[in-house]
Design goal:
Low-confidence stretches: none
Number of domains: 1
Strand content: 5-15%
Helix content: 25-40%
Number of helices: 7
Largest sheet: 5 strands, parallel
Mean pLDDT: 91
Distance between the termini: 34 Å
Order of helices and strands: EHEHEHEHHEHH
């Protein structure tokens, strides 16, 4: 069994990577360079893919910075200090990012003859992104299976696995620790400097998750 795992290099995707491997899938990792300020995450993705021994790791280049609407891709807009309890969609939201990523993953999946895609999204404990909800994942799966030959003609539908959709990040970390996920290799900070800033949404969510899980974050220091 082959599976495509969306691998950003962060906590969620690293856990999804290990989970897919633990379920016996032959793993094909897929990462994206899309104009994000935290390209440092791609170093983490490469190290994770290498450590766990994926069959193939592709990094696809997409220039989403041209829209200029997200502080995550617009070099002229500063990443603001995080407010994870505000209930507002943060300025780091990249329009339709997961929709784009899942579409590319579906193409890769069909080309491989695979039927499984893993994505590490959660609608319980996240930044408020609309493309991290179960409703969206289900709609994307339905669309993929209306527009791929493997599903329409060959009766081989593609399944999107979102195993953490109803889990908190703390619960996810506990699961990952049990599987031996090397969280020291992961990168979460949106600012993408040499060391995590500790104040962006992603850093705050990470710190909260490790604290609630009762573990020390092994990735606080610089990735060598």
């Amino acid at each position: 069994m082959k599976a495509v795992v969306l691998l950003s290099g962060g906590l969620d995707s690293a856990t999804a990577l290990y989970l897919a491997k633990s379920k016996g899938f032959e793993v094909f990792a897929l990462s994206f360079e899309y104009g994000q300020k935290h390209k440092r995450e791609l170093e983490a993705a490469q190290k994770l893919a290498s450590k766990i021994g994926v069959t193939e790791h592709k990094i696809v280049s997409l220039n989403l910075s041209g829209w200029g609407s997200s502080s995550l891709t617009n070099q002229d807009v500063e990443i603001s200090q995080g407010h994870i309890d505000s209930g507002e969609i943060p300025a780091t939201y990249v329009p339709a990012r997961n929709m784009i990523f899942l579409s590319v993953a579906a193409s890769y999946c069909e080309a491989l003859g695979a039927q499984d895609i893993f994505i590490g999204v959660s609608e319980v404990d996240y930044s408020g992104y609309v493309d991290c909800r179960r409703e969206f994942i289900d709609a994307m799966e339905a669309a993929i299976n209306k527009g791929t030959v493997c599903a329409v003609e060959d009766d081989r539908p593609i399944k999107i696995h979102a195993p953490f959709i109803n889990m908190t990040k703390a619960e996810e970390i506990k699961l990952g620790v049990g599987m031996g996920v090397d969280y020291s290799l992961t990168w979460s900070c949106y600012r993408g400097g040499d060391k995590p800033c500790g104040s962006c949404d992603s850093c705050l969510l990470r710190a909260k998750a490790f604290s609630e899980a009762g573990y020390r974050d092994p990735g606080l220091n610089k990735i060598d």
